[in-house]
Design the sequence.
């Protein structure tokens, strides 16, 4: 056996049998590539040591490693293009295939991709603004990021990405697609999508993607406020506090939280936001997996929220995923918020990012998320309390009207055309009606005995 291969196998064999692994679990920020990876809270980042292998396991490990070494040697000796047969290239490709075969969200991350994960959670990165995942084996848009090239071009949640720059995506992993969609500001990429049996093609010009978490904070009527959380990143909780402080100064009595097309983000951020609205000790989410780290029990609110008594309604749709589903599920199960809209996406698996010593990393599915009431989120989603679906055309009108209201065109002399003005946001109307009823009920309960209201 080639000495280099032997030394490699010896090292791997020793790692597998000892359980030392040379790696540690961390909770860096997840990537919008999936896209947004859910992470265990930072305090749960202790190293895990797997149990010692049995004699039978040792023999099986060695048998399979011998097969791997033989295949590598055959490729090194006989493959037509010698430039592609370096040991590093072969091993990295084998690792990428190994992780990709497990599930659509597990990945082997090259140093550049791993660094990209870290960069994205700082709130800015280069690309077109599409958050993607895999649904039924097909690359699927979870949601376009607001105020990005993809959003402005009309990419929708649920669109199937079938080609990128002329390359079919059947064999693409999420990371493959992300790598091709990213690039320098000003460069373009062609994306072909399938939407309701119709094929559409978009040419998107890449831009710097700045992720603002909380938008559109305003008072609606009768003391009912509104705000949108577009994704969960490091600044989200602070942005939320600022928005709520502003609304409270305007007489806030109830709140609509819009999570539509929120693809998720940092679990730690979603936990911090949840704590604003829950009682101390309330369960926010539970994870269930094989590792000891994943059996620690539910994550609970560490303190009583400042707005723990504020009536809430939460808007969801099929673009609501991951960390956004955790927030919505916690509020629904604790009867803290009424969910209105459509069934959410159903992305509730935990991906732990595990760095290796050489600068690469693994993104590995280690557990599933469950709501406080024990409901599995993954591939099921959350059902709204008030079903209020919108057609694609209706949703586009709502988005147009919202953009006109929140970012008015200073050059426009005339009011918006009727197309945007005609938009009726039925889920928002239903949520406001529900909150009005709650406020009336509360007002009646607080009235003095014998007084009619």
Sequence:
């Amino acid at each position: 056996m080639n000495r280099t291969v032997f030394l490699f196998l010896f090292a791997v064999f020793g790692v597998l049998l000892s359980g030392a692994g040379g790696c540690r679990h961390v909770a860096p920020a997840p990537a919008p590539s999936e896209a947004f990876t859910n992470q265990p809270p930072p305090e749960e980042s202790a190293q895990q040591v797997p149990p010692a292998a049995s004699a039978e396991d040792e023999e099986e490990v060695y048998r399979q490693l011998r097969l791997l070494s033989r295949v590598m040697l055959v490729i090194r000796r006989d493959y037509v293009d010698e430039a592609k047969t370096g040991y590093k290239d072969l091993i990295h490709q084998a690792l990428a295939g190994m992780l990709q075969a497990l599930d659509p969200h597990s990945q082997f991350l090259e140093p550049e991709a791993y660094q990209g994960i870290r960069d994205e959670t700082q709130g800015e990165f280069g690309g077109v603004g599409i958050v993607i995942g895999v649904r039924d084996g097909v690359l699927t848009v979870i949601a376009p990021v607001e105020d990005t090239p993809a959003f402005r071009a009309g990419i929708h949640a649920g669109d199937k990405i079938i080609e990128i720059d002329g390359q079919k995506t059947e064999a693409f992993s999420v990371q493959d697609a992300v790598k091709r969609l990213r690039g320098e500001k000003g460069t373009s990429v062609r994306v072909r999508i399938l939407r309701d049996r119709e094929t559409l093609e978009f040419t998107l010009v890449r831009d710097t993607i700045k992720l603002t978490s909380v938008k559109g904070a305003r008072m609606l009527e009768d003391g009912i406020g509104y705000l949108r959380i577009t994704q969960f990143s490091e600044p989200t909780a602070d942005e939320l506090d600022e928005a709520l402080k502003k609304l409270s100064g305007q007489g806030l009595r109830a709140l609509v939280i819009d999570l539509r097309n929120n693809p998720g983000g940092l679990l730690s951020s979603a936990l911090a936001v949840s704590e604003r609205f829950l009682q101390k000790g309330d369960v926010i989410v539970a994870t269930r997996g094989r590792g000891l780290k994943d059996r620690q029990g539910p994550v609970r609110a560490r303190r009583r929220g400042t707005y723990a008594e504020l009536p809430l309604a939460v808007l969801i749709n099929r673009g609501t995923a991951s960390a956004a589903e955790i927030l919505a599920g916690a509020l629904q199960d604790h009867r803290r918020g009424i969910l209105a809209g459509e069934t959410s996406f159903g992305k509730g698996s935990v991906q732990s990012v595990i760095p290796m010593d050489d600068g690469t990393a693994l993104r590995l599915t280690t557990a599933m998320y469950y709501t406080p009431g024990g409901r599995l989120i993954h591939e099921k989603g959350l059902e709204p309390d008030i079903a209020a679906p919108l057609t694609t055309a209706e949703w586009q009108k709502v988005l147009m009207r919202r953009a006109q209201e929140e970012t008015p065109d200073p050059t426009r002399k005339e009011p918006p055309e009727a197309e945007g003005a005609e938009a009726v946001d039925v889920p928002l109307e239903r949520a406001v009606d529900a909150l009005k009823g709650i406020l009336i009920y509360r007002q009646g309960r607080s009235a003095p005995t014998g007084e009619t209201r």
